[in-house]
Amino acid sequence: MGFSNSVLTISGKQEYNRGMAEFRFYHPVEVRYGDLDPQGHVNNARYLTYLEQARIAYLVHLGLWDGHSFLDIGVILADVHLVFRSPVLYGQKIRVGVRVSRLGNKSFNMDYTVQDALTGQEHASGSTVLVMYDYRQASTTPITDEWRQAIACFEDGSL
């Protein structure tokens, strides 16, 4: 197995693997028996939960949320897109890569990759739009300088 310019080579076969080159944060996810559908693979609705788990872990990792009050998290999900590539099975070790790809005035985009943690094979990819939101005032707010700096610094200044 070798890595070269976002291409993963396994057993002589090259596959495009954007996850290895673009994602700086990964969150491990345990595939639970209750995540499975009657076909024996992870139900498509569970992927949204996996993305949410990874998104929250990313915010905690960057120090943008302390993990206590959900009224203080400061973001609300506005849009989500998922692309399914191959099934995830019970017992499979997976990880979710997360990155911020755009910072606007009040909203930002996050990209995701759901991968086999051992091989890097991408099982799904997705994107979300999150809006800064004050739950106490029930209104949108601008992205703070603190959030911009933390995200830009972590994402290597690429935003």
Distance between the termini: 32 Å
Class by SSE composition: alpha+beta
Shape: globular
Question: Class in CATH?
Answer: Alpha Beta
In the CATH hierarchy, the architecture is Roll
Total number of strands: 9
Order of helices and strands: EEEHEHEEEEEH
Backbone CA Rg: 17 Å
The description of the largest β-sheet is: 6 strands, antiparallel
Strand portion: 35-45%
Tally of distinct domains: 1
Classify the fold: give the CATH topology: Thiol Ester Dehydrase, Chain A
Helix content: 10-25%
Which residues sit in consecutive blocks of at least 5 with pLDDT less than 50? 1-20
The helix tally amounts to 3
List the helices and strands and how they pair.
Layout: E1 2-4, E2 7-10, E3 13-16, H1 18-22, E4 25-30, H2 46-61, E5 75-84, E6 93-103, E7 107-116, E8 122-134, E9 139-140, H3 145-154
Antiparallel strand pairs: 1-2, 2-3, 4-6, 5-8, 6-7, 7-8, 8-9
Written description of the protein model:
- With 159 residues, this protein is an alpha+beta fold.
- It has a single domain, classed as Hotdog Thioesterase (Thiol Ester Dehydrase, Chain A, Roll), CATH 3.10.129.
- 19% of the residues lie in helices and 40% in strands.
- The chain has helices at 18-22, 46-61, 145-154; strands at residues 2-4, 7-10, 13-16, 25-30, 75-84, 93-103, 107-116, 122-134, 139-140.
- Strand 1 (2-4) and strand 2 form a beta hairpin.
- The longest helix has 16 residues, at 46-61.
